[in-house]
């Protein structure tokens, strides 16, 4: 069943995610007008020039006039300020959703500032992205086959949740639902912590006196392990701040794992090390076969 | 200056590295006969069938008769036993080299068992590999543009070091020299530790009650961060055991870095986190531009 087109879509934060959502709905013939709003006038002008948005709004009053759907897609640290600023201008029927990598803080902002609007404020998180950021990298096909996690509120009207789900499905995405607490714990483990660990390794090496020498001999294993250390610092600062309790819990769990491996190394426990490595390898290979078109396979190249 | 062909090359451990060395020298017209030796008869037969080796030797006496060059390319944990076993059958002029990812243990084995042969026993480490292992994955082009680190002994005859260097150069490799201590410290930092960290993360998640759920939401950042967790457990067990002191030192350094980041998270220190992330990103991007044809770029996709 095809969902009906959005008359006016407002995208706050026209970067990779917001821009791709706009382009995907345009490609599907499911949006008549896209209005961009954001803190950077320059990036709104680029989005306009690229046809990602049809119009840039000067303020929330202008942006929200006649808006049917609003997607919040700026770094998660801005959520509360943005929700607070938009709230007074929101018409009763406008559907609000977001694309933040963390959910508890988004929900807190909704409860704080959208108290009368909770029927139509549906938190979401598309598990998609690319190496690039900014609206120049926006791509109508970005969400094809990717998961979008919705964490609906008890107050949400079922029709609003369905509408958000259908719009993402029209972008090619697969919908999952979770509680916000569960969402934030799961992504702390499989996404936020790995980012922190990769940043930590590169930072550690880069600050050494012999950093030049170390980097000269780093090869393909290092390349892949640290690829996410080139991620956007502000975005990841925000994720770390808003989800810091779950990330700390995951970090502490990981430190226990490292303490265990450290003991195996200290005691030169070959069978113990091989068992850990073999279990990890089996789990990684099973994951690769099941969840990704893992063209590059797994394994070392050093 | 083209180096002269090797009359008879012996490869111990005909896997990805040993097999690729044989194929590369064959492709360059620089070897007349390749003799394989190893603990697995089945893998020697596959290497024979694939034309990676010309003959499989039943024992070291047979393998070393008339051998001009020997490459040791089995997992590093076998080095001492292999060197001990070959020593009695080694003719005075035969050149011995190796491809181990660690060097101090190889040198210890040379000093222990090749006391009269040190002029011609040259330790080396090709920084190359691929996702696959085994002689089926052997590839004549594997070493093109890759570094090979030699860690010559004071006892080495300059002509022997030059000969080893020229053979690797004929495979397309770039030669570097380092002390074995420096080699083992550098690779503990940029290769061995990242492997341990990736194994640790996957092992940690795989052992949880909700492992299925966690893996379901893992995406591209996790894929690349953990690719090396699919590496060969025996090979990495051996590397961890023989280089455990350097790896422990690197692990402890990394644990200090994580303690620092943990403190930033605990205190919700946004500027501090952003500074670490921004420094890491700058270093990772500079590395990507300088050292790799980093087609995939860096950055997050979550």
From TrEMBL, chains A, B:
Name of one Pfam family that matches: PDH_C
Keyword Secreted: no
UniProt xrefs under InterPro entries: 6-PGluconate_DH-like_C_sf (IPR008927), NAD(P)-bd_dom_sf (IPR036291), PDH_C (IPR046825), PDH_N (IPR046826), Preph/Arog_dehydrog (IPR050812), Prephen_DH (IPR003099)
GO biological process, one term: tyrosine biosynthetic process
Catalytic activity: prephenate + NAD(+) = 3-(4-hydroxyphenyl)pyruvate + CO2 + NADH
Keywords of the record: Amino-acid biosynthesis, Aromatic amino acid biosynthesis, NAD, Oxidoreductase, Tyrosine biosynthesis
Pathway as given in its UniProt record: Amino-acid biosynthesis; L-tyrosine biosynthesis; (4-hydroxyphenyl)pyruvate from prephenate (NAD(+) route): step 1/1
The UniProt record lists the keyword Coiled coil: no
SUPFAM superfamilies, per the entry: 6-phosphogluconate dehydrogenase C-terminal domain-like, NAD(P)-binding Rossmann-fold domains
Domain Prephenate/arogenate dehydrogenase span(s) in chain numbering: 7-295
Molecular-function annotations in GO: NAD+ binding; prephenate dehydrogenase (NAD+) activity; prephenate dehydrogenase (NADP+) activity
Record-listed E.C. numbers: 1.3.1.12
PANTHER family: PREPHENATE DEHYDROGENASE (PTHR21363), PREPHENATE DEHYDROGENASE [NADP(+)] (PTHR21363:SF0)
Family the entry assigns: Belongs to the prephenate/arogenate dehydrogenase family.
Name listed for the protein in its UniProt record: prephenate dehydrogenase
Species assigned in the record: Tepidiphilus thermophilus
């Amino acid at each position: 069943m095809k969902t009906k087109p959005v008359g006016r879509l407002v995208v706050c934060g026209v970067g990779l995610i917001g821009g791709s959502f706009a382009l995907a709905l345009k490609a599907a013939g499911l949006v008549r007008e896209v209005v961009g709003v954001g803190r950077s006038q320059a990036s709104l002008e680029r989005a306009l020039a690229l046809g990602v948005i049809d119009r840039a709004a000067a303020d929330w009053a202008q942006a929200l006039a006649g808006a049917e759907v609003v997607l919040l897609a700026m770094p998660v640290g801005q959520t509360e300020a943005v929700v607070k600023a938009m709230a007074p201008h929101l018409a009763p029927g406008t559907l609000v959703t977001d694309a933040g990598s963390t959910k508890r803080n988004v929900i807190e902002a909704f409860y704080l500032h959208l108290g009368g609007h909770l029927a139509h404020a549906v938190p979401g998180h598309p598990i998609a992205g690319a190496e690039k950021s900014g609206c120049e990298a926006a791509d109508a096909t970005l969400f094809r086959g990717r998961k979008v996690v919705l964490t609906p509120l008890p107050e949400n009207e079922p029709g609003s949740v369905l509408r958000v789900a259908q719009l993402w499905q029209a972008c090619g995405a697969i919908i999952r639902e979770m509680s916000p607490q569960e969402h934030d714990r799961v992504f702390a483990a499989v996404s936020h912590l790995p980012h922190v660990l990769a940043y930590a390794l590169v930072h550690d090496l880069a600050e050494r006196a012999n950093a030049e020498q170390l980097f000269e001999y780093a090869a393909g294993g290092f390349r892949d392990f640290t690829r996410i250390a080139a991620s956007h610092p502000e975005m990841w600062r925000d994720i770390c701040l808003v989800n810091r309790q779950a990330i700390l819990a995951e970090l502490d769990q990981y430190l226990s794992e490292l303490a265990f491996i450290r003991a195996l190394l200290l005691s030169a426990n070959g069978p113990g090390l091989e068992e850990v490595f073999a279990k990890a390898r089996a789990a990684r290979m099973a994951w690769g076969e099941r969840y990704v078109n893992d063209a590059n396979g797994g394994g070392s190249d050093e």
